[in-house]
Amino acid sequence: MNQTQTNQADKMHTELDPTAIDHILATEEHLIPTSGFLASVMERVREEATAPPPIPFPWKRAIPGITLLTGTLGWGAFALVRHGLPAASELSLTPPHLTAAFDQSLEQAAWVALALGVSLFSWLLSKRLAGRSGLL
Amino acid sequence: MSYPAERHELAAASHNPPEKTAQADPDLADIARVLAGDVQAFEGIVRRWQGPLINMAWRYCRDRGRAEELAQEAFLRAWRGLAQWRRESSFSTWLFALAANVFRSDLRRFPAVDLPLEAAPEPSAAALQHHALAAQLNAESVRRAVLALPRRYREPVVLFYFHEMDVAAAARTMRLPEGTVKARLSRARALLRKRFPHLEAQHEEMEFGALNTGKEA
User: Which of A51, A79, B1, B11 holds its CA 20 to 30 A away from the CA of A93?
Assistant: First the structure.
């Protein structure tokens, strides 16, 4: 028995006691690649090599537009908060006793929505962490 | 399996100057040519590693056509990411880890076997009358049952036997500590033994029989 075989046998005995299952899984027959495999891989590699590089996003042209859009939306939101909300709070279409009940149920709904959001976030986070660690 | 992984480990571990190593190692020479813009040089890499990668993919899915597709995808990823190989590990380690990632993510989307381990098929009793056929059926059942193992136990088994029972190589491919791989391997083997208790009994009987025959001879 040569050194490699001895090492292999030693490894099997020390790391894991060899069993019938070991024997079966270690004696897997080996596939030989089909004749066209190499050509097929090289064809795809050549396709990738000759394909033009992806067009980069035109940041230089887009930045003024994005800045303008962000500014407009920001200004709109600011104006809405400054003028719109006080006006809306002054406007009441429902009687006062109904408004109080509505506010209470709205508050409860907000808490429920918040709880659901936190649950969803923690579920997604745990799934992601478990996926990374190979638990799933 | 005869693949040149050990040769690459030695090449990576040696302290030869880069030019000398590139001359001695065909992979390094081909990689240098590919990075210099010679697409054709990648053919050498595919030629040398197509067998190991297809066999590795086969162990993940046990479907010949799909194994070749997965191996092709792994080669394409290797082609795209060749410049990112930092030579901290050997080329074979990098390639196997990349391939394992490709196979893992593909099989996560389209599982090869969607059976619980308990539902994995077992050979019928009638077949046991014929030793050769029974052995063949047993072997195939066990190999298929590996795919029905929970995901965290399946991959260590696949890679451990692919790497000729080398825990360190399997751990490097999975980028996990050796202890974790050993623990998962041990659990996986326990699950398989529980699923196929008769195999161990048969194995012991056969070994006992062989010993007796040897003594008589």
Answer: A79
* pLDDT (tens digit per residue) in B13-35: 333 444 445 556 888 999 999 99
Identify the CA nearest to A38 among candidates B121, B25, B49.
Answer: B49
> How many C-beta atoms surround the C-beta of residue B70 within 10 A?
23
CA distances (Å), origin A28, targets A1, A12, B52, B93, B194: 22, 16, 13, 21, 21
Alpha helices in B63-176 (DSSP H): 64-81, 91-109, 131-147, 151-162, 167-174
**CA distances for A12 relative to A25, A31, B112, B164, B167, angstroms:** 13, 24, 29, 10, 10
DSSP code of residue A82: I
B194 and B127 inside one domain: yes
- Three-state SS at B50: helix
Number of domains in chain B: 2
Residue of A125, A47, A38 lying closest to B39 (CA atoms): A47
**Helix, strand, or coil here: B210?**
helix
Q: Is B92 on the interface with A (CB under 8 A)?
A: no
In a domain, A69, yes or no: no
Domain carrying residue A24: 3-50
Please report the ipTM that was assigned to this predicted complex: 0.70
Cβ contact (<8 Å) for B165 and A41? no
Q: Are B108 and B149 members of one domain?
A: no
For residue A37, the model assigns a pLDDT of: 95
pLDDT of residue B5: 43
Kindly calculate the radius of gyration of chain A based on its CA atoms and give it in whole angstroms: 33
